Here is the input.
Amino acid sequence: MIQVIKEIIQKNKQWLDNPESELSFLKMNTPASGTLPHAGKVLIFVFEKGKKTPTLCIKTTRTYEAGETIKKNYENLVTLSQFSNEAITTAKPLLLFDNKEVVLSFESVCPGTKFSSGITSVDTVLGAYILWQKDLKSSKVLFAPDLNTVTLQTISALGLPNESEEALIRKYDSLGEDSKFSLPELIQHGDMTPDNVLVDGAKVYLVDYDYVGLSKVPGFDIFHFLSKTVKQTGEFKSYCELYLHKYFDAIGGNVQNIDKLLFTYHMQESLRKGTGTKNGNEIVSDFESLIMK
Amino acid sequence: MKSPIKTIEGIPFYSEDRYWGKAPKEELENAISLIENEGWESFKKHYKNRFDFTFEENRADWRFVIPLSKSSKVLDAGAGMGRITIPLARVVNKVVSLDNSFLRLKYLKLRAKQEGLNNIEVLVGDIFDSPFEKESFDLIVMNGLLEWVGATTRYPDPRVAQIESLKICKGLLKKDGVLYIGIENRAALAYLRGADHLGIYYTSYMPRFLANWYTKLRKGRKYDTYTYTKAGYEKLLKEAGLTNYEFYLPYPGYNMPRVMIPYTNLDALAYTIQSLMSAKGKRAALVRLIGKSRLMIWIYRHFFFSYGIVVTK
Here is the structure.
């Protein structure tokens, strides 16, 4: 595989800052990558001699059969990169390669270091994120989502037994109504964990594009990011309220019952993580203790 | 290819069977019986947390920095239970798995069948009984093997045995073929809190004569599992006539190469520390502090746990 990569770079020297530079290659697996032959991604970073950060990132998988993941990731990057602005930047897609033996995606590398927690940094990241989404919204038409349908579809997708599903729906119904609920349909990163956020001074970069897509219920990125950064402090809900209201104001949304929306996000996160052996009542209990507390 | 001494259950022998492994031989025998009689699901249930490591697919992930293709032929020397063989067999033409232990290869063969991989050939033997024709392989793997090669009875000096094994590998490689060596760094900081190969602390740091004396005193056997620093490996390779090599720093170690960092590029090591490693925990914070100073990174590199050495013929 490395020989294929070297040949492609040789033919595309314009990707390098210095085309004559000596190159070295660093390989890493994404954390999820491990015990299954077709799971996870492998990243190869290309360093030009004397440069502190890599110039290129090449994504691939252990087996060709798993290459669809890379194709999807690349297509998502192409979509998301069109929306890069001053507030939030992504990598630049360069080439998707498939020779029926290996799938490789070539992209530029975002500078910066991984996000590390601290309220100032949270504010930096979410401040930039909200500005970015506000900018995206300006070119979009308002969309009135049917929150009930989205939530029920998500609960159904969890694949739980009937009694568990009913427990989740009961909880959702008990959170009241929001008759004026309205949010614009917006593109979301979909997996905004601290590992996927790089910070370089005031600049914020998003990496890893597996879950990019238009969302009928935007705001999940903020919920997901906060769930990975401030949940331990027991102040998760107040952070959500603070940043989500700023966010809805910025994108022109109307949300009066945030509890109902938080439950929908919780279902979306449960779907992402998998429910394991938990039943509906335990998932509701998690919602109460981790989010509403 | 030479004829085998004997063949048992379809596995040819080129040397006598010598079982090795952390699990007692009887335990593996019982595990194999369970697989044969009740199937893999029973095995997985019964031996959870005992043999799970053999299912990991990321043990051969160093391969991404090595030129391999669908047409490559590979020798996995010291293949054991197939942690390297299985993932490699998914992406190359053929893997020949060589090991001293019949039982471990029997397990490997069952795993290959379970995975539907019919491009794996297993044979009992050691690198000194190599039955292969010259220039047969595109890649030879010595992952966690070279340090044990010195334990052979054929050469009184472990270092001489290691050089001879490298010369044999050189002969078996095709032109431009690659030898991959995964092995510990003799000066690794990890040896401050973990035992050396023969189960004794600090022998890796000692001069050989002292390690030998101490091992005889503690274990009643000589010290023959030599590891080296980078300079030591370079000298060893050169004496075996192998002069074209690249060193990588596998993180967290050569048995789990989640990251392969090019040794000569300090910027790549700094980038790994600052941008790729987890930012959580006190240890991570300390390493990130080291990552801010080029001198500290240079020093840190000398005490890394292990090396991945890519040697091109």
About this structure: Chain B touches chain A through 34 residues (CB under 8 Å). The beta strands of chain B are 6-8, 11-13, 73-77, 94-99, 120-124, 137-143, 173-184, 244-253, 256-262, 306-312. The mean pLDDT of chain B is 91.
